[in-house]
Amino acid sequence: MITSKTISNGILRALATILIIGIVLYFLYSIQTVIVYLCISLLLCLLANPMILFFKQKLKFGNSMAAATTIILFVLLLVGFIFLFVPLIISQANNLSLLDTNQLQSQFMETEQSIEAYFNIQHVDLNKVLKDSKITSMLDFTYFTGFLNSIINFMADMGMGLVSVFFITFFFIKDQDNFKTTVREILPDSNEDKIINSVIKINHFLTRYFIGLLLQLTVVFILYLIVLVIFGNKNAFVIAFLCAILNIIPYLGPIIGTILAALLTMISLIGQDFRSEILPTTIYVVIGFLVVQAIDNNISQPIISSKSVNSHPLEIFLIILISGITFGIVGMIIAVPLFTMVKVILKEFFPDNKIISVLTQRI
């Protein structure tokens, strides 16, 4: 029989549960920075696994030496990345801050007239449109230098974060065997083998995926670089690197990279004849990038998406599409690794389910 005391006790337990959940969520929110550091460190450990195995098996390094060498390589890679892009950003920001808006308007009008002459377009008085809209009076290129300063300050604030991530990563790499032993002791005996097998398989598949992804980006970078060098782009290395990095974003990244390459190519050719130099060179670069993307889409991506994680290409496409619609660009980037993790866990814990058995038959 339900009494008022039973009801009150139930309400109190429910309120206590809600309160505890709220406290836990608030605590997690308060330490979200630390959680981010841990996640980044775990990802770096995953990426570092092939290097660590090489150091231990081929070079006979101990745990500490292998961990220290790996961290040094990560730091050198980060420093190289900074030295590659910061001078370029600073020089472009300085150029924009010193740019004369009247000169910009004049160059814009010349470009507009060249486009009209080349494509035989009916004349549109853009000069009058600009004056009526007062766009040039609103342009303030000193904003770019302020924006650059804010980026520099942000990078300085991130210094402590980088030190923390590398510190955590060092001990994750160095003591990963001890961590595995500790986790094994904590896990419940009934599901211990399933959890450990899931972690081993996930680590295996994601390691293969990230190695394949790095290989794909390297191939795309080399092909982009060849295209840009052939057509005499002055910043071929940097542009090819940026566009290759954008390929991390499935399907959408190559499109953004092609547009970026076209714009930067046109900017690098400012001052030359539009009809005979700027437009043809830009078209050739775009065609070259489209050829590279055709090679990547038909050779590199199927190998990585299908072979490395043992999933059908259509399956991968649908997962990326759904993740992109639901979570945007971030969802597209993490779709394949996350989907692989879910498949491994489902197969390990529910191997007799018919639907799961069909979906995970390649794993």
Short description:
This protein has 363 residues and is mainly alpha-helical.
How large a portion of the residues is in β-strands, by DSSP E?
Answer: under 5%
Largest sheet: none
Total strands: the figure is 0
Note poorly predicted spans.
none
Give structural notes.
The chain is 85% helix and 0% strand. By secondary structure, it is mainly alpha-helical. The chain has a domain at 193-363. Helix 2 crosses helix 3, helix 9 (192-230) packs antiparallel against helix 13 (313-349) and helix 10 runs antiparallel to helix 11 (252-268).
Write the layout of secondary structure elements.
Blueprint: H1 4-30, H2 32-57, H3 63-97, H4 101-119, H5 126-133, H6 135-138, H7 142-174, H8 176-186, H9 192-230, H10 236-246, H11 252-268, H12 274-308, H13 313-349, H14 354-359
Notable characteristics:
mainly alpha, single chain
